[in-house]
Amino acid sequence: MSKKYLYSLMAVLVAAATALSACGPAATAAPTAAPAATSAPAATSAPAATAAPAFAVGVVLPTKNEPRWIQDETRFNDAFKAAGYTVQILFSDGDSAKEKANVEALISQGIKVLIICPQDAAAAGAAVDEAHAAGIKVISYDRLIRDTASVDYYVTFDSVSVGKAQAQYLVDHATGTKNPLYLYAGAATDNNAFLFFEGAWDVLQPKIADGTFVIKNSDKAVGLQGSATLTRDQEGTIIGQVTTDWKFDTAKNLAEANLTAAKASDKGNVFILAPNDGTARAIADTFGADKDVKSYVITGQDAEEASIQYIIDGKQSMTVLKDVRTLVKDAIAAAVDYLTGKTPPQTTTYNNGKVDVPASPSPIVSVDKSNVKAAVIDSGYWPAGDFKNLP
Ligand code: BGC
User: Fold this and answer.
1) Any idea what the Cα angle at residue 107 is, between residues 104 and 113, rounded to 5°?
2) Is 11's pLDDT higher than 80?
């Protein structure tokens, strides 16, 4: 997003915020550089705030326990700060009750647009129903909120493609037959876990059917391996057995339990579908410590700095770059569309169990050692100085 474009976005946000409330942005939130050529009231002319400043847009993110969401916070702050403003970003600490309280706090501050990444896809329904009832536009951010009509728009990456890219990497690195395959999934409360698994199954199932891979850690998946496509319930059965719950410890414990149950002949040169970077590092460390595992190919997602270093060091095979700068830009642009009476762009819809939610998913990039420098350093995503031994 160009600076000039951001300035006009911010001008709209501030105009809406000041129109909404008698209390304008706090003095500390005043822009350092005035937005150029705009009819929006200058923030500096707003009355000094004594209470919390009112923003037209509020952001709610799920947890600070994973680098992924801290990254989103940073990149949201960067995007707003570039124009001299702050934005209210609240974290739900992995707790749907806290998430609802956060949404209620933003409603009482008079926001007009809510950008929310749900901790739990179904539980978030009640919170966004309240927001919608208050006339607020709801943008589901990265994860889809399910079973409610109160979602206006979905800002997302193409999550089915994420799963496909992970599975394709495993397929491309397997030779011969009977390669041991270990499957892991995200949290069953996260709709994305289903989309990632759907994409992965699409690519892996034919390669299980033709004998390239043999599933070693899920009798539920083995029971369904003849089915090219799975229903959501069938996906749920497998995910329930191989879920990491998006937690490093759960991932590590499950990998340990799987390796304890497996015979030495189920190990050797193994292939591991790991759903994201945090769980991939935990699972990779566990497999790497098993004396019967000779080599492993393991997937990931998020291009977290720690995983980029793992890839450089040969401890994680790949990751999927989902450029959060794009997601943040799309979310802010959609919010501004709503604030200015427009409709955000739509190329497809996602059914959330109740309604078809409009979306325009962003593409993803598969990253391994061979393109890590081009994809994440040269693109400006992470600074080269944060890594050792870059190829
Ligand atoms: C996100 C991933 C993330 C995972 C765990 C998913 O919904 O799309 O990027 O790694 O949640 O937080």
Assistant:
1) 125
2) no
Cα 144 to averaged position of ligand 1 atoms, centre (Å): 11
Residue 78 pLDDT: 87
* Higher per-residue confidence, 219 vs 38: 219
* Distances in whole angstroms, Cα of residue 287 to Cα of each of 112, 234, 254: 48, 27, 11
DSSP-assigned letter for residue 377: I
**Could you give the percent of the chain with pLDDT greater than 70?**
85
199 Cβ contact list (under 8 Å, min separation 6): 159, 160, 161, 162, 163, 164, 165, 166, 167
Looking from the CA of residue 278, the nearest atom of ligand 1 is 10
Specify whether the CB–CB gap between 92 and 103 falls below 8 A: no
Closest CA to 85 of 3, 5, 1, 7: 7
Which residue do the tokens 């709709």 mark? 191
For residue 74, the Cα-to-chain-centroid distance in whole angstroms is 14
Task: Give distance in angstroms: CA of 308 to centre of ligand 1.
Answer: 17
Percent over 90 (pLDDT), the chain = 81
- Alpha-carbon distance of 71 to 235, in angstroms, equals 29
Tokens of 336: 């501004």
Distance CA 292, CA 284 (A): 14
User: What is the phi/psi pair of residue 322, to 5°?
Assistant: -115, 100
Largest Cα span, the chain: 73
Burial track 45-81 (b if 16+ CB lie within 10 A, e otherwise): ebeebeeebbbbbbbbbbbeebbbbebbbebbbebbb
Q: Which residues line ligand 1 (CB under 6 A)?
A: 66, 68, 142-143, 186, 190, 192, 246, 276, 301-302
Measured CA distances, 257 to 33, 214, 218, 273, 314 (Å): 57, 18, 12, 16, 24
* Distances in whole angstroms, Cα of residue 192 to Cα of each of 147, 189, 249: 15, 9, 20
Q: Is the pTM of this model over 0.85?
A: yes
Query: What is the rounded CA–CA span in Å between residue 358 and residue 360?
Result: 7
Q: For residues 114 and 60, is the Cβ–Cβ distance under 8 A?
A: yes
Instruction: Report which of 302, 306, 201, 186 is spatially closest to residue 250, judged by C-alpha positions.
Output: 186
Q: Mean per-residue pLDDT for 270-278?
A: 98
The Å distance, Cα 341 to ligand 1 centre, comes to 31
